[in-house]
Amino acid sequence: MFNYIKNIITGIISLCDGLSVTLKHVFRKPITLQYPEQKPDLQLRFRGRLVMPIDPEKNDNRCTGCMMCAKICPNHSIMEIEKVMEDGKPKPKVKKYIYNFGTCMFCNLCVEVCPFAAIIMSDEYALADENKEKFILDLVAERYNLTGKKLNWWKSKFKKEPAEEKVQK
């Protein structure tokens, strides 16, 4: 008889504990986003796919084709970099930059090694597709334009050149 009453009291206490947790969450602000309609606010350090943004001042990309990004890539996701040729000599400008984000680990090594801040990881996060051919991109032909806080952060990465001092005679 004693165990029966003890089990009833333990059950009532357990029920009250569960209801208290439920009531706490009923009056909180929801943290769930209604995904297709509401987009998440991503941090600057988020690593989406690799992009080669257009510099608004030059209206062109900043890549010189130094190949440092392709050499450091552990998965060889940067498949081909082709420089512009004039008079049989390569110029410090890329004509083609083939990137496969299907094999990319999003490790950010290529971005960190780039001396000209020519490539960055974008804010794109919904990258799934059934067709593998869509994962292979030419970043030069894409002409990607950055916007918002990612653009301001990218511009801050450029090395400031000291102003030339005028020598007065």
Mean pLDDT: 89
* Main CATH class of the domain at 50-156: Alpha Beta
* Corresponding CATH architecture of the domain at 50-156: 2-Layer Sandwich
The separation of the N and C termini measures 110 Å
Helix percentage: 25-40%
Computed Rg: 27 Å
In the predicted model, the low-confidence regions spanning at least 5 consecutive residues are 164-169
Strand-pairing-aware structural class: alpha+beta
Largest sheet: 3 strands, antiparallel
CATH-defined fold name of the domain at 50-156: Alpha-Beta Plaits
| Spatial strand arrangement across the major sheet | 2-3-5
Tally of DSSP helical segments: 5
Percent of residues in beta strands: 15-25%
Elements, N to C (H/E)? HEHEEHEEHH
The backbone outline, from C-alpha atoms, is elongated
The total of beta strands comes to 5
